[in-house]
Amino acid sequence: MPHSVLVTRKLPSSVIKKLQAEADVDVHSGDEGMPAAQLRARVADKNALVSLLTDAIDRSVIDAAPNLKVVANVAVGYNNIDVEYAKSRGVLVTHTPDVLTEAVADFTWALILAITRRLAEGERLLRRGDWKGWALDFLLGSELRGKQLGLVGVGRIGRAVAARAPAFGMNVVYTEQREIDLPNAEPISLDRLLNTSDVVSLHVPLMPETRHLIDKRALTRMKRSAYLINTARGPVVDEEALAWALQQHLLAGAALDVYENEPAVHPDLLRLENVLLLPHMASGTTETRTAMADLAANNVLAVLSGRPPLTPVP
Ligand code: GLV
User: Fold this and answer.
1) 27, 88, 206, 216: which one has the fewest Cβ atoms less than 10 Å from its Cβ?
2) Which helix (H) or strand (E) holds 277?
């Protein structure tokens, strides 16, 4: 085979077969990520790398692979890759936008409904054997109808979340400088969004400008009755500040799918009832994960055959 590909974690067999038809494929089969030294050693003679968001593709990895043409990340986010350095070394970087948009938007609404209606609290209570029977004032949540959803970031996923809002009777505001075509939604400053929204949902990529965008100051601006939802990237929220704000009841609750130091979760969050904690699974449907892996493989095959990649990072 003229080409060689390193795949850092198991992918659906249909996707591996597709790669194998065109290249020698070295797949890391362990359930844990590849240790950095092993990644550098195994990528050294490869032309393409299929990476996951848990792999740090830094300068040392790119320098270790002089024949590398493309890094195809199986994720829409690409903060795990030193994109500037890759580009400077002539290595293309691709990601998997669009194919996961609807799955993540659905999951965001699952979190919004679960935290505002206290689903996890109720389930924990029932399993503990503490349910004493129906009562009028038992585990009351708050309704979404007529409330304001504040979207911090309205790229593909933010818009798909906005599109579902009318079904729940929510008004939408969003932070965006440029005019975008989002029916029934209003652009607004971040401060005002935090001040006035009943649900604040984060949909920005992780970049230096968005790291700790939701810090202590931002959290103190939120309504005491409001909820924070994060399906973007953990470091967009200062987890320590969030745990403090929840303990002080500065907001009503939070639902998180992502964390600052995954898979670790701030221990104070684990002790709180008014926070819903999920293990980074927003795009996790069989259909979507297969489509993500397939798109990454198609990007690899395009580059190896001299065509432009389908979905390069911007
Ligand atoms: C998941 O977090 C992704 O970026 O695709």
Assistant:
1) 88
2) strand 275-277
Sequence ranges of the domains in the chain:
3-98+286-304, 101-277
Please say whether the beta carbons of 224 and 198 come within 8 A: no
Of all protein residues, the one whose alpha carbon is nearest to atom 3 of ligand 1 is 75
Q: Sort 75 into a burial class: Cβ within 10 Å, 0-12 / 13-18 / 19+.
A: buried
What DSSP designation does 57 have?
B
Does the beta carbon of 231 sit less than 6 angstroms from any atom of ligand 1?
A: no
Beta carbons of 81 and 273 less than 8 angstroms apart: no
* Residue among 7, 18, 12 nearest 302 (CA): 18
Other CB atoms within 10 Å distance of the CB of residue 132: 8
Model confidence pLDDT, tens digit, residues 242-274: 999 999 999 999 999 999 999 999 999 999 999
- Would you say the CB of residue 99 lies under 6 angstroms from ligand 1? no
Q: Nearest Cα to 81, choosing from 49, 103, 104?
A: 49
Residues ≥6 apart with Cβ < 8 Å to 261: 234
CATH topology (fold) of 3-98+286-304: Rossmann fold (3.40.50)
State the distance from the centre of ligand 1 to the C-alpha of 295, rounded, in angstroms.
14
CATH of the structural domain 101-277, one choice from 3.40.630.30, 1.10.10.10, 3.40.50.720, 3.30.565.40: 3.40.50.720
Asked if 172 and 196 count as a contact pair (C-beta separation under 8 A), the reply is no
Tens-digit pLDDT profile for residues 204-241: 999 999 999 999 999 999 999 999 999 999 999 999 99
- The verdict on pTM exceeding 0.70 is yes
* Cα distance between residue 149 and residue 185, in whole Å: 10
177 pLDDT above the threshold of 80 = no
**Domains 3-98+286-304 and 101-277 belong to one CATH topology:** yes
| Cα maximum dimension of the chain | 70
> In whole angstroms, what separates CA 165 from the centre of its chain?
20
> Could you tell which of 257, 280, 283 is best to mutate to test the pocket of ligand 1, judged by most ligand atoms within 8 Å of the CB?
283
